[in-house]
């Protein structure tokens, strides 16, 4: 009559597949619905991601992490004066504020081959965790390959296209911006790298190449630096970035299968 | 031509159709960002009242983006079907709204009129409609497409299984595919967003999906969502390309920012057809769209984002697509700020796409910087299920670990099917029953069949 009921949660038999991916697979079910344990785990992850969106660059820490590279470091700010304005006005995040423009003009830095920019984007947490390693390794490799480097620029409340505003003033041949990506539930610390050849105002996204998911559990920072360097060399060879530059540029029909195996 | 409308002794002036459409749009952050929204609640309703009085023929004489400078406008004007338009040609926008909801506008009549409606007419009428109007009219539109199975039949709701992985690991992707198939997802397609857009990475994924599908004779289709220039290269090399993907937008300049033109789409469409891989039909294009894409490329020409979106549907319908997906909340809060705006936009996109004759599905989604959460997605999912959406996304646990956003899950698909009595694509449902994954009532079975399947599916 009034027997105690079981909760009805049925686990999935293929839970072992979880070793292959961080995706939320084999969650089990009650009826057709997600068990409460998984539902709450999702909510917690969402809370972490929301918190990452509102995180801030720790400029002193970041400068300390980048100091060993031996390049001058400058701090810039976009025209977005707060995070809430940043979220609603991406145009402000793409432009430098007056102080930053003045600072770059005063540098009178000779035009370099490569300019490395680090911006908070949508997750300063991602920058604080991953940018130091990527930048240091990238600088080592660039110097080995005899590229000249502009000062490192740290940008608060920056978007990808602030690259172009910086390009207008410093005129590097190529710019790389490392920027916190839109946080996901299982990856609120994921960094993206965007390469722009001959950056200047008015460029659109098809003129850039992107490497995403740079973080310990995704594309490791050291591997990311290698990948970025590979793209930089291809970009200098072709004198462009964007959709005309494929990551495996030079791949021809005869080699398709061999290269696919290696990919 | 200027449009005037007087409310309580004050006369609002709207300089042209473009401005009238923008000011009549329900509020959304993207139009505010573009600086084209109504300045007050009253002005918005005045614009809607003025828009209601505009004859549909006005839209044939006044382009929101000049014919001379935009190939999407040229496509819209040059392909306008005068015969299909004739039953509604005497209507104003307001009369069109009333007619669409009337019992005269049957599914068959809507299908006949569709090629006579330009995207701007459809966008305009949607601005006068409440959410329930958008749902009811969309429900009347049935758009059926075929490749290896049948999509869009009344009473069916399909799922794109989206097994993305941050580094395109074969085993990681396979694990998500298995999870999805065992939860009854994957009838719209198995579609991977590759982390890296390269011919080599795309080929590897295509070969893997093709092998999986052939070994288990799954009546579905696959897609790796690389740029269309990559896909073209791969089709030349006879790689197993089922669906040809591309993101599209509603202006020539926005499409240029995606690296495409209408003629490039045509070239890819023809290349896809030449492969002859569809067994039930030859709808093979897969387009993704989303409000705000034109503005984000600074290519909106002062046109509101919802009108730009519907212009993208005019591009899509030239290529008889298998599926069209509005990725509604992906673009972020600067275009659709919160759950309310995302839900409204989702219903608009679905309605407008269906009325334009497209097999509309939707990535019911949001990003973590938007003011939305899974409760908002449940609401939109339920509403779109009622409205007869062709397909939704199935992402493990609704959490895309590659694209960093939240969508709908395999469980969500089971929820909406159960709550509304909807079923999988018929050919796929038969396969699920044959494999012992579900029973004839659509309940998922547990036990040996699943184990056998997942052991065999996982690549060595």
TrEMBL record, chain A:
EC numbers for this chain: 4.3.1.7
Pfam families found in the cross-reference section: EutC
GO molecular function: cobalamin binding; ethanolamine ammonia-lyase activity
Annotated Gene Ontology cellular component terms: ethanolamine ammonia-lyase complex; ethanolamine degradation polyhedral organelle
Cofactor entry: adenosylcob(III)alamin
Enzyme class: lyase
TM segment ranges: none
Localisation: Bacterial microcompartment
Listed pathway(s): Amine and polyamine degradation; ethanolamine degradation
Reactions catalysed according to its record: ethanolamine = acetaldehyde + NH4(+)
Cofactor binding note: Binds between the large and small subunits.
Residues engaged in binding adenosylcob(III)alamin: 160, 181, 210
Key words of the record: Bacterial microcompartment, Cobalamin, Cobalt, Lyase
GO BP terms in the entry: amino acid metabolic process; ethanolamine catabolic process
Main location class: other
InterPro entries, per database record: EutC, EutC_C, EutC_N
Family, per entry: Belongs to the EutC family.
Physiological role: Catalyzes the deamination of various vicinal amino-alcohols to oxo compounds. Allows this organism to utilize ethanolamine as the sole source of nitrogen and carbon in the presence of external vitamin B12.
Quaternary context: The basic unit is a heterodimer which dimerizes to form tetramers. The heterotetramers trimerize; 6 large subunits form a core ring with 6 small subunits projecting outwards.
Name of this protein: Ethanolamine ammonia-lyase small subunit
Native organism: Spirosoma profusum
Gene transcribed to yield this protein: eutC
From TrEMBL, chain B:
Keyword Lyase found: yes
Enzyme Commission code: 4.3.1.7
Pathway(s) it belongs to: Amine and polyamine degradation; ethanolamine degradation
Subcellular location: Bacterial microcompartment
Database matches in InterPro entries: Aldolase_TIM, EutB, EutB_dom_2_sf, EutB_N_sf
UniProt GO molecular function: cobalamin binding; ethanolamine ammonia-lyase activity
Matches recorded under Pfam families: EutB
Recorded GO CC terms: cytosol; ethanolamine ammonia-lyase complex; ethanolamine degradation polyhedral organelle
Catalyzed chemical reaction(s): ethanolamine = acetaldehyde + NH4(+)
GO biological process, one term: amino acid metabolic process
Cofactor: adenosylcob(III)alamin
Residue numbers binding adenosylcob(III)alamin: 194, 246, 296, 402
Cofactor: how bound: Binds between the large and small subunits.
Keywords from the UniProt entry: Bacterial microcompartment, Cobalamin, Cobalt, Lyase
Major enzyme class: lyase
Positions bound to substrate: 160-162, 193, 288, 363
Family the UniProt entry places it in: Belongs to the EutB family.
Function: Catalyzes the deamination of various vicinal amino-alcohols to oxo compounds. Allows this organism to utilize ethanolamine as the sole source of nitrogen and carbon in the presence of vitamin B12.
Subunit structure: The basic unit is a heterodimer which dimerizes to form tetramers. The heterotetramers trimerize; 6 large subunits form a core ring with 6 small subunits projecting outwards.
Protein name: Ethanolamine ammonia-lyase large subunit
The organism of origin for this protein: Spirosoma profusum
